[in-house]
Design a protein that fits this description.
Layout (H helix, E strand, L loop, with lengths): L2 H27 L5 H21 L3 H14 L1 H4 L7 H18 L1 H18 L8 H5 L9 E2 L3 E6 L3 E6 L6 E6 L3 E6 L8 E8 L3 E6 L4 E8 L3 E5 L10 E8 L3 E6 L1
């Protein structure tokens, strides 16, 4: 499935889930729906979030949903009343972040294997920079990316990547909660234009773009920041980068150097 469509589908899923939780809580607190119905609705919702997160190895939302389920059934399970609900939620977040860090290498290997299987099953040509794009099997990325198409992904860690390509056509950069810096160095566009999509969630991203390129940019910004430093070329004959940025609550900084 197209990476952009997956991102949109995930955003819709989490958006609907959060709306359902909020609306359900309001309706229950106002007495419009009985507590028993609210319990069934929230159980189904948090169970769905748990399963969805488990499939994608997203430990933080998985454990948060588990903590909510424990809270809903704390009387049945026998959780002591002295243990506040907020402490369970905070503990689930901390444990989830720890698991994300521990299993980050495994998640990268699974994604690389799925990508390789997709390419094989669909008889697609492997990008020349496949090793750079998807790691070396140990969850460790080299710093350089080459080839006409590339995909850079960062979760919770910190990365610095260098794009070196004489045939740049399409690129995708994705950052979750971490810090990612990308430099375009020794890059040429054989067709005179190329496409670059950037997706940033809660993290911080720095992208260094040659000032000799002209830019056509579209933005989909949530509660974060998209900051430009310097200016791209205004020459109509300059190589053109078609740039699309989707930013959640993080910060994307563009440097034209």
């Amino acid at each position: 499935m197209n990476k952009h469509l997956v991102f949109k589908a995930n955003a819709i899923f989490w958006g609907v889930a959060l709306l359902a939780i909020g609306v359900g809580a309001i309706l229950c607190a106002s007495g419009i729906i009985p507590g028993s119905i609210y319990l069934v609705l929230m159980t189904a919702l948090f169970a769905a979030i748990f399963i969805r997160s488990l499939i994608g190895f997203h430990f933080v939302p998985m454990l948060i949903s588990a903590a909510h389920l424990v809270h809903l059934y704390r009387g049945v399970i026998g959780i002591p009343s002295q243990l506040p609900s907020w402490m369970m939620i905070v503990a689930s977040v901390i444990i989830g972040v720890g698991l994300e860090l521990i299993f980050s290498g495994l998640k990268k290997r699974i994604k690389a294997a799925n990508k390789a299987k997709y390419i094989t099953d669909n008889n697609c040509d492997q990008p020349k920079s496949a090793t750079n794009n998807f790691g070396n099997g140990n969850g460790v990325y080299s710093d350089s990316v080459m080839g006409s198409n590339f995909h850079i992904e960062n979760g919770f860690g910190e990365q610095t990547r260098y794009i070196r390509s004489t045939e740049f056509t399409n690129g995708h950069i994705e950052n979750g909660f971490g810090n990612l810096t990308v430099y375009f160095q020794d890059v040429t566009m054989p067709n005179g234009n190329a496409n670059l999509s950037i997706e940033n969630g809660f993290g911080h991203m720095n992208v260094y773009i040659p000032s000799g390129w002209s830019i056509t940019m579209t933005e989909d910004n949530g509660m974060g920041q998209i900051v430009r430093h310097g200016n791209p070329s205004t020459d109509p004959d300059a190589p053109r980068l078609n740039l699309h940025i989707e930013n959640g609550m993080g910060c994307v900084e563009l440097y034209f150097t």
